[in-house]
Give the backbone structure.
Amino acid sequence: MTKVIEARDLSKSYGEVQAVNNVTLAVEQGALFGLLGPNGSGKTTMIKMLTGQTRPTSGTASVLGIDVTVDPVGIRERVGIIPEQETPPSFLTSLEYLKFVAAVRKIPDIDKKADWWFDFLDFADKKEVLCKDLSRGTRQKLMFTQAFIHEPTLALIDEPLINFDPIMQDLVKDYLADYAKKGNTIFISTHILEVAEEICSEFAILHKGKLLHTGPVADLKARGGHLPAFFLSLVGKGRHV
Amino acid sequence: MFELFVAMVKEEWRVHSTMFGSLSFALFPILIFGIAFMGSFLIPLVKRTLPLGNLSIIVHAMYLMLGIMVGGFGMLGNEVMNRRFGQASFLAYSARSLPLSERFIFANFVVKDTVYYFFLWVFPFAFGYILASPFLGIPLASTLFLLLTLTLSFLFGLCGLFFLSTVYTWSRPVFGLFLLLLGIGFGGIMAAGMNPAIFFPPLLLHDEFSWTNLLASCIVLAYLFIVSLWLFNPESVGSEKKYRDSFTPWLQRLSFLPNPPLATKDTIDLYRSGSMIGQTIFSFIVPLGVIWFFLSLMSQFFPPHALLFLYAVTTGVIASTMYTWVTMFDNFGPYACLPVAVSTLIESKLTTFTILQIIPAVFIAVVAVLAGEAAYLIPAVVLGLAVSFYAVSIMAWLCGLSPNVLVYDVKVLFEYLLLVGVAITIFSAASFVNPYYALGAVVLAIPSWMFFRQAKIRWDAVDPQGF
């Protein structure tokens, strides 16, 4: 299998705070990879480094064969990203934002594609509403759409379900699982362990910037384990070290 | 609820100090103090060429402008709290979970900004002058009196713009009517040969102290502030306005520009936020109107063409701040998930800025004609635009996409003042000697281009900031 993400001894510090500490991991094509960890464990920093939004302090990383420090814009051209905070531009409407994304990414047939997404995520009635007036859930739908509208082979998503209602969560979980089955790769960061256990094929646990574990979910299940219990056994211990 | 006010002041300080470091930010008022202290020793020299009365007009005008810069609360409303440092859980927002009215929170915000910027800008400047005065043989009482009139000038700018921008937001026809009446009143006073300073009580007070003048100033200030707060209408949460697609037609119209999608977004931002008209009025025409008013008070001292070129240079510097209009809506957040580099964004913002330069160009041309100096129209426009592009190139180089915030970094401010100050001094002086020397300002295109280029390289090399 082709490795779509490779990180070696990746570190990031902000002043004296070590956000990510010597992380080495690889994600193969077709995986639905879950990066798990408590708040402040370094998950968002990992995604930011892998998408070229912040530079590593040391170590190397490549995404789709592109070095994150050499061509960060090239990476963002080829992947889909949903950042931690939904930040569509205040004074564009939902439809205009998607047209803006399409113009930047040079996506053809945007009207047709946008209509499909408006129907699929059930927010067609918000097409002409300014992004600043949207609810958080609708903004998340919009950000989800912009990440997938160009059908990237890799999507990196920070907390994919955080603002969705239960119905939308089900819909999105199914979509992500199907998307990965088609040979695409999904990299999510989350602290909702039940979701990760349900949809991820592989996972890694990050705590205080350090990688504590990485491996397939199936292996854990084969040993009769459950992700939440496994996670707490690792991270819980870590808290008292 | 004094606690809310104190917490807001602390919050503002921490936002700034965490960005530049406590020491670097603490140095900002010290720099202002230093400029005033050292500058005071130049007074005996300046006095030989510029009468003290004119110098005091300039200083009062500066403080009025400072107040104007801080006071656009009414138009921006909730947005001003939002935009200053982005969407974050600041007290102005989190206090909404407390049993406090929006108007009360907003009043605290306005008072906090007034007090905060008073101690950041106004007091250090006056204090520098006060400390220098014993060495210059200036009586302490007169320096303290200056502190009073400068404070009133600052508050006049702040409350005046707060009032105008609130009326503008409340009712455009009433705003238009108010401006018309103001214009008629001003015209009438000028025609009657009365002192135009009657429109600016702090200056009257400075020229001749009287308790009546002081009381008049305070009453006018209180009136402007209270009426503004009373008219201020907190944006109702959950209001949902619908707009038809403007992106597609604008994208086609702007397809000749580099990065048409980004230019289209900027255009829609400016239009829908009300900034295109609002900022033009309150950040451009009002300040320049005020400057024209003060220059007209000094018309006996300067030859007419020098006034025009001084005005063109000032317009150029103020026009360069249009860069903040196009950067105020964005942090890098909305672009972080798109294939857009910071340098591309800077290039796009500067493209939009270039289009906006039509406003100062037309403005200078109109002023040249109205001032009866049409013969110098082209040199004045060239000088104004050259200064504007030069100043914005330095701003882009020093601040990237965050000019509104990084201006409070003492190192940034010092470098900006030095680089812009030297250039405008040289070209103002040259145009005073011979009006056509102003055309020489085109050479500023060379350093402007170099600073643009360096800005792109510099800001691509650092992590894009949320602010």
